[in-house]
Specification:
With 111 residues, this protein is an alpha+beta fold. The protein has a domain of 77 residues. Helix content is 20%, strand content 30%.
Length: 111
């Protein structure tokens, strides 16, 4: 069977180059979100936590735990309508997680 491959599907490098055409900015595609970042320090179950909260839209804030400022952990973020609400939701979850871990650990030792 003898067939010709279409030019766009060839694996051999063509002598033509790909050209980049910049598109003008479209105001409907871009949203301006403030770059405010709020940091809260909380002590939960004797451990210090740094919670960083950043805006994701007008009335939506994302809270994450950070080990070093600006470097979030892989933990699921918590969202709230205000920075304080998002930080409180994350802090409440951490408190419940520590309480649960303490109830599950054997008395007088760590697992």
């Amino acid at each position: 069977m003898c067939m010709r491959f279409r030019g766009a599907l060839r694996l051999i490098v063509c002598r033509q180059r790909v050209q980049f055409a910049a598109q003008p900015p479209n105001d409907n595609r871009h949203r301006i979100v403030t770059a405010d970042v709020h940091r809260f320090e909380q002590s939960i179950a004797g451990r210090a936590y740094l919670i960083e909260v950043a805006a994701v839209s007008k009335d939506r804030w994302r809270a994450t735990i950070v080990r070093l400022p600006g470097l979030p952990t892989a933990m699921m973020p918590f969202y709230g309508r205000t920075p304080i609400e998002a930080a409180e939701l994350l802090g409440a979850w951490l408190t419940r997680a520590h309480d649960r871990a303490a109830a599950a650990s054997p008395p007088g030792g760590t697992v």
